[in-house]
């Protein structure tokens, strides 16, 4: 009987920890691509029109006559579709949004997740280096707050030694 009680406690604990992680913000469409921006940049014709959910750090916003473009340094996403800000970059892409986008709503350095479709690519530059940017026609976007980024992480830490709480 003790073994059954322990197994039940372990199962409930695992369930409680899993419940801490926020759900993904966008429902992936059937056939949503798992390719990263740097992979799409190498052979953009292979991925034309594919649905993507990508995220990363805002580099800059350009407002044009009828649309806005947000250059984003891509990061892999966690299970909640939050960019993993401590991960290495996965290339760059341009999020194309209809109309005017207020640059203050998408400040440089902000973390963002977008949901949309690939709409080709464009040659450009990163500094002096030539670069191919995949273009994403954005259906939805979400700029993450520090509070949202902190949610869902475990506050339980086990270890030996001295720790500092930030």
UniProtKB/TrEMBL annotation:
Signal peptide: 1-18
GO cellular component: outer membrane
Superkingdom to which the source organism belongs: Bacteria
Protein name per UniProt: Starvation lipoprotein Slp paralog
Keywords annotated in UniProt: Lipoprotein, Signal
Organism phylogeny: Bacteria, Pseudomonadati, Pseudomonadota, Gammaproteobacteria, Lysobacterales
